[in-house]
Amino acid sequence: MDRDAVLAGLKAYEGELIDIRHDLHRHPETCYEEIRTSGVVQEKLTAWGIPFEAGIAGTGVVATITGKRPSQGTNARRAIGLRADMDALNMVETNRFGHASTIPGKMHGCGHDGHTTMLLGAARYLTENPDFTGTVHCIFQPAEEGGAGGKKMIDEGLFERFPCDAVYSLHNKPGLDLGKFITRKGPQLACADSWTVIFRGTGGHGGAPEKSTDTTIPLAHFILSLQAIIGRNVPGLDSAVLSIGIIKAGSSHNVIPAEIEVTGTSRCHRPEIRDLLETRLRQVAHHAAGMSNCTAEVLYERGYPPVVNAPRETDTAIAAISALVGADNVDGDSPPINAADDIAYMLEKRPGCNVMIGNGKGPQFKNNHMPDYDFNDEIIVLGAAYWVSLAHQELNPAL
Ligand SMILES: [Zn+2]
Ligand SMILES: [Zn+2]
Questions:
Q1: How confident is residue 73, by pLDDT bands cut at 50, 70 and 90?
Q2: Per the count of CB atoms within 10 A, which of 1, 100, 153, 366 is most buried?
Q3: CATH code where residue 69 lies
Q4: 112 and 50, same structural domain?
């Protein structure tokens, strides 16, 4: 790959890409309602002569670019998926610049407007410069922010209709310098599950507990035992969190409640630990109830799985970044982060790697999901160039 040629080629589209990003930022859409956004993506793909299929998981779009370089029998991959999310957040934007949100209560507070734009730029460049062997599927997905749009695309046959040997994603990281990238092999982002336990007993008179079964006793055992799961069951070198956020019970100081409801969250970075937390939490709840002749009902709802990067694909991503900005500008062993991302579902189905690109420092780049956040236009060309570099790394390994 000729790095300077790629950057110069993408730079030629920069003005138009910034216009697209600002247009998307002005018109944020959330959770499967990305109709206008999907329309913009389809309009640009059409204008640039890139074939695509729309309507996957509602507003999802997959554009397919076929390389024109004849196979030399050396490329390890036939097809890769590059994924960008398109959705915004339900939050009020406080920015007053020209491209601030025009939709009350909605904002591109996570920079998915930038992710969509960077992938569009890469799709255009790869179409105009198809000097690779194999296929690139550009996956534009809905509903990353809590709606599991990536899972819905998989359920609607994403990888059967668009076979991919590997899948990749790119997320901006506020606070990380411009021109820097981070990633890591193995668990990178956390899973976030929620659960509710309902303890049931007879309830009764506060002055005559011997005539009732008391739900407060199993609750007390349960709360303390949760932290024993973390301390005694989770291996010392793993991280895991069990926290209680809500306890609902009681009507009067002298009435033992017949029912107590406790709700909390589980966080961890490995699928094995996730299974362990659920299994032990269920056991502890039922045993605690049984000791006091009460019952427990456990509702455990799995959110996004952890993001787990495959070793080979992470090496490939690091090589693609190094070819672009030099090895000094990528940290390939950055610490895990307790945020979640639904690229996790795609990474469960195909090996791949999630990379984070520096969004820069400054008041507007403190963190995602803040009301004065903005995606940094200065990284659009670099992010698109990463996608191009990755395609070359995967589909032109001999070059
Ligand atoms: Zn977000
Ligand atoms: Zn995000």
A1: low
A2: 153
A3: 3.40.630.10
A4: yes
